[in-house]
Amino acid sequence: MKMWAGRFKKELDKEVNDFNSSIRVDCKMYKHDILGSMAHAFMLGNQNIISKDDSNKIIAGLEEILNDLEAGNLEFDMEAEDIHMFVEAELTSRIGEVGKKLHTARSRNDQVALDVRMYLKDEILEIKRLSINLAKDILDLASNHKETIMPGYTHLQRAQPITFAHHLLAYVNMLYRDITRLDDTYKRMNYMPLGSAALAGTTYNIDRKLVSDKLGFTDVTLNSIDGVSDRDFCVELANTISILMMHLSRFSEEIIMWCSWEFKFIDLDDAYSTGSSIMPQKKNPDIAELVRGKTGRCYGNLITLLTMLKGLPLAYNKDMQEDKEAIFDSVETVKQCLSIFRPMINTITVHEDNMYKAALKGFINATDAADYLVKNGLAFREAYKIVGSLVAYCIDHNHTLEDLPLEVYKEYSPKFNEDVYEAINLKTCVMNRLSFGGASLASVNEQIDRLSSLLLELSL
């Protein structure tokens, strides 16, 4: 019989019960449900709402259930409506009528709001840890390639020379922002809703702050209706995860391109590649492709949550049961992707020569040729037009800017001299980009130092 069966004359239809049940999803929260209930029981005894003896029996019974679940000595009853009812029923079967006092001064509405917050707080810390470790690994890779020259791209066209380190550090910056977003999400999530009861609070003399402190929350939620109906924290975490996955997907896209014969900037380790069932020569970047593909899954979960919530009147509605499957899936997906990304990055082979050869093509030092003229007295727009004409000449006559004779340069501007060749040397082009955040060695070293310090400050 259901805990709420007093109002009803008939048992719930089995198919309806299966449709209504959420234990297959919310059983993940068993630890948080039990810890929340232990804190609630302690408060009930401390406030003399129930006797201290009953409070202690309930706490001991809950601790025993938690230990049995974690030891594998107790299995979830998949016929239970949800994790809350499973724990309460198990407690009552073990300690008798005293177990029925646990639910005094609370509702499943504020109980589930508590459990989800507690569960997601722990998951945020794990996602943060994985993100920090990945960022550090990319920093290490960048540190080994501070002078590895490659073409930088705009519109997927070769644009200007940079270093592999400079390119990689862009992703470390992205991950750093992701980690700070996780911290921000955690801060807003860290308010304790228990005590809101069904929606209007309770007539019992409860001490919400005591429970909040015991469970490690910053404070209690201010409004009881908002306490049970708020799922902003799920949406915010789903959004934060979606942005993180977007960054992983962009990196995956570049890894996939870089592995291709058209680029061949890197090779993935055999352990993080797969073959073809029909083409024996193939080595496919399937892991990066899967990360790219799973990003859409996380986007879908975010839209699920937003759509589920957009038309709900206050306070609790059963629609909100759908929050957990969506956010839990996003959490598991991003953790899996972060975990597999690290060893994939750590085992890549970088083909520095191929990167440099690619940088020699595409006139990516044209801006530097224009800057050379500016430094010799021309306005930038005039210099831009002259160098554009030179590039057109090179294309028509199968030249590069590096091998173009000086007399041809002088036909376009007398301000060109022998030192133009040094000015447009790729290494010079890169190392002279001394502006803050630029591609020079000095700038890259500063970026690495600052990002290392920032990540250390964010460490758990």
Description:
By secondary structure, the chain is mostly helical. The protein contains 19 helices and six strands. The protein has a two-stranded antiparallel sheet with strand order 1-2. It has a two-stranded parallel sheet with strand order 3-4. β3, α8 (208-214) and β4 form a beta-alpha-beta unit. α6 (108-143) packs antiparallel against α19 (441-458). The longest helix has 36 residues, at 108-143. The chain is elongated.
Mean of residue pLDDT values: 95
Morphology call: elongated
Helices and strands: which structural class? mainly alpha
Order of helices and strands: HHHHHHEEHEHEHHEHHEHHHHHHH
* Total number of helices: 19
* Rg over C-alpha atoms, rounded to the nearest angstrom: 30 Å
Q: Fraction of residues in helices?
A: 55-70%
Task: Indicate the proportion of strand residues.
Answer: under 5%
Head-to-tail CA distance between termini: 45 Å
Give a brief outline of the structure:
The chain has 460 residues and is mainly α. It has helices at 14-20, 23-26, 30-46, 52-71, 83-95, 108-143, 164-189, 208-214, 224-229, 232-259, 286-309, 322-346, 352-359, 366-375, 380-397, 406-412, 420-423, 426-431, 441-458, and strands spanning 149-154, 157-163, 191-192, 219-220, 266-267, 349-350.
